[in-house]
Amino acid sequence: MVDVGVDLVAREGAGALTLREIARRAGVSHGAPRRYFPTHLELLSAIAHRGFTDLAARVGSTRGDGRTGPRGQLTELSRVYLRFALENSGMYELMFRHDLLESGHLRLRDTSLPLFGVLVELVGRVRMDADARAVAAALWANLHGIAQLWRWGSLQLATGADDFEPLLRAALDAHLGPGDRR
Predict the structure, then answer these.
(1) pTM across the whole model
(2) Among 22, 30, 129, 139, which residue's beta carbon has the most beta carbons within 10 A?
(3) What local confidence, expressed as pLDDT, does residue 67 receive?
(4) Eight-class DSSP state of 16
(5) Rg from Cα positions in the chain
C-alpha cells in the first residue's frame, strides 16, 4: 500500500491520497489499509517517510569526498533540495504537512531533523559569526519559498528567468555572504 501511495502521490499529488483510492489501486478491499495503518495519518506518514529517505540519500551524496568546502556543499545541497522539490512536487507537499510531522507517526521528525542538522552544520562552518540554526532556518525557508513559487510559475513570471540558479545564488549570498563565483 505504501508503494501504491508513493506512485499515486507522484502521479496525482498529495490530494489523491485517500484510503479508498490507495486500496482500490492496491487491489484490496477499502477496509484493508486499516489493518496495517489504523489511521489515514499513519499511512500518509509511511508514504512521507519514503520521501524523506529519498531526500536524505540525495543530500548525503552532496557531501562528496571532502575536497569541496562547506560553501560548495551548501550550494549543491540547496540545488539538490530544489530539484527534489520540483521533480517530486506531490511528495514534497506531503512531506512538509505539519499534521504529519506533528503527529509523531513513524517518527518522521527523526528522519527530517537530521537533514536540517546537515544544513545547520554546513552553515556553521561558513558563518562562524552567526547563529547557525537561525541562518539555516532562514535559508531553508528561502529555498522552500523558491521551490513553491517556481512550481507555481510565479518566479518565472516575476523575474523572466527560465532557471532557478540565479535565485539560488542570490539566496545563498543573502544568507551566507557573497560567495566564490567559480
Answers:
(1) 0.89
(2) 22
(3) 81
(4) G
(5) 18
* Counts of helices then strands in the chain (DSSP H, E): 11, 0
> How far apart, in Å, are the Cα atoms of 68 and each of 30, 45, 64, 77, 106?
51, 34, 7, 12, 34
Q: Cell numbers of 64, please?
A: 562528496
Going along the chain, which residue ranges are E strands? none
Give CA–CA dist 148/85, Å, rounded.
8
Any idea how long the chain is?
Answer: 182
85 closest CA partner among 155, 170, 20: 155
Q: What is the pLDDT of residues 20-37, one digit of tens each?
A: 899 999 999 888 888 888
10 Å CB burial of residue 47 (0-12, 13-18, 19+) is buried
